[in-house]
């Protein structure tokens, strides 16, 4: 892909649900081609933020720009067409289908344009199917699940399912990947392996990654920059080393 990652700029974002302010004026910038972490205790507003970026939730006010394009007024499929893909905190895979078929689902955004003509030209359709399978295999190799392509998802470990979920998002060739709690429920060993994978994905594909995480140690060795939310507000931002020492961050995490 020749598409380039752009800067993501979140400016004074507010989201209210009835009387609850899930986000109260949050701003941060994800530089192109970096790994940026959005962390904070449960209920801080992290998932809400991803939901606005992906178009699932509407912002009450504020703006989000991906490059020159304002996202908050666009429907989810238009945001996906701009190269923004996401995973979910709770997996959204087809459990009976194979890993390969789950990854091919992620190709639909790319393939949509060409489908009608393919039906009339079988040799070309077969060639394109081979290309699609090769693309999916390359992504699976990057994620270390290429040996599992023929397996049904329900036979996989939880950690491998998380990789399939990430692979399906990557199959759409995003320039910005949004990951919601990529290591939730994983063992320490699995988390560290996932950090290596996320770093490899960023370096190999050159995209930007915004990851939401509850687990602070996990993001420390991985993210170049960290934004910390608490009760819908940004309480700190900086390098992992800086935010780790910030008294307000320690207070939010330790509840003291
Ligand atoms: P986090 O992902 O950091 O744990 P969330 O973004 O899920 O936090 O939630 C932030 C706040 O917004 C919480 O108080 C939560 O109950 C509320 N919230 C999130 N989504 C909705 C929704 N769809 N309807 C009502 N309240 C919501
Ligand atoms: Mg969440």
Structure description:
This protein is α/β, with parallel strands linked by helices and 256 residues long. It has 2 domains: 1-83 and 174-256, P-loop containing nucleotide triphosphate hydrolases (Rossmann fold, 3-Layer(aba) Sandwich); 96-172, no CATH class. It has helices spanning 46-53, 76-81, 99-105, 108-111, 115-120, 122-142, 158-170, 188-205, 216-220, 240-245, 247-254; strands spanning 8-17, 20-30, 35-39, 61-66, 69-70, 84-86, 176-180, 208-213, 225-230, 233-238. The radius of gyration is 19 Å and the shape is globular. The chain binds adenosine-5'-diphosphate (ADP) and magnesium ion (MG). Magnesium ion is lined by residues 46-47, 89.
Instruction: Tell me how many strands there are.
Output: 10
Kindly name the structural category.
Answer: alpha/beta
Helix content: 25-40%
Number of domains: 2
Strand sequence of the main sheet, in spatial order? 6-7-8-3-9-10
CATH class of the largest domain: Alpha Beta
Unreliable stretches (pLDDT < 50, length at least 5) are none
Largest sheet: 6 strands, mixed
Radius of gyration: 19 Å
**Element string (H = helix, E = strand):** EEEHEEHEHHHHHEHEHEEHH
CATH architecture of the largest domain: 3-Layer(aba) Sandwich
What's the rounded overall pLDDT mean?
A: 91
CATH homologous superfamily descriptor of the largest domain: P-loop containing nucleotide triphosphate hydrolases
CATH fold-type name of the largest domain: Rossmann fold
Number of helices in the DSSP assignment: 11
In one word, what is the shape? Answer: globular
Question: Span between N and C termini?
Answer: 48 Å
Instruction: Provide the list of bound ligands, each named once.
Output: adenosine-5'-diphosphate, magnesium ion
Q: Report the sheet-strand fraction.
A: 15-25%
Protein name: ABC transporter domain-containing protein
Family: Belongs to the ABC transporter superfamily.
Organism: Cryptosporangium minutisporangium
């Amino acid at each position: 892909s020749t598409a380039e990652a752009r800067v993501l700029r979140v400016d004074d974002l507010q989201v209210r649900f009835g009387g609850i302010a899930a986000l109260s004026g949050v701003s941060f910038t994800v530089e192109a081609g970096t790994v940026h972490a959005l962390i904070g205790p449960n209920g801080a507003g992290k998932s809400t933020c991803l939901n606005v970026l992906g178009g699932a939730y509407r912002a009450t006010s504020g703006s989000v720009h991906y490059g020159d394009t304002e996202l908050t007024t666009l429907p989810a499929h238009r945001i996906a067409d701009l190269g923004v893909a996401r995973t979910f905190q709770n997996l959204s895979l087809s459990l009976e289908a194979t890993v390969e078929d789950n990854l091919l689902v992620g190709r639909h955004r790319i393939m949509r344009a060409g489908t009608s003509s393919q039906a009339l030209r079988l040799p070309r359709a077969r060639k394109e199917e081979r290309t699609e399978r090769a693309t999916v295999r390359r992504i699976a190799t990057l994620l270390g699940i290429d040996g599992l392509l023929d397996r049904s998802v329900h036979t996989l470990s939880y950690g491998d399912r998380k990789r399939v979920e990430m692979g399906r998002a990557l199959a759409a060739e995003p320039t910005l990947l949004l990951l919601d709690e990529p290591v939730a429920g994983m063992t320490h060993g699995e988390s560290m392996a996932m950090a290596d994978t996320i770093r490899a994905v960023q370096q190999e594909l050159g995209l930007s990654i915004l990851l939401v995480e509850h687990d602070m140690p996990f993001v420390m060795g991985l993210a170049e920059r960290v934004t910390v939310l608490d009760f819908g507000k940004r309480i700190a931002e900086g390098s992992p080393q800086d935010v780790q020492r910030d008294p307000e961050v320690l207070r939010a995490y330790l509840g003291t």
